[in-house]
Structure prediction request, 72 residues.
Amino acid sequence: MTETEDGAGFAGPGRPERAEVFEVWRQDDNGNRFLMSRHPDRASAEAAVAAMEAGVQHKQLYFVVERSAQPE
Prediction:
């Protein structure tokens, strides 16, 4: 059995070697941070940030963090 076949997080047929997840975080005016949502691509994460910032203005900071997904 090779590393590709053993499920150790390596790419197989039609699977990327490393999947990325884009998280949307909120930081309040006291510096507390909260995970708001996770997205499969940066575009949808940025769209979520734009939607959150379009509402009533508060002292909130929204930002996107790119993370490696955990192997299944």
Notes: The longest strand covers residues 20-27. The two ends are 19 Å apart (CA to CA). DSSP finds one helix and three strands in the chain.
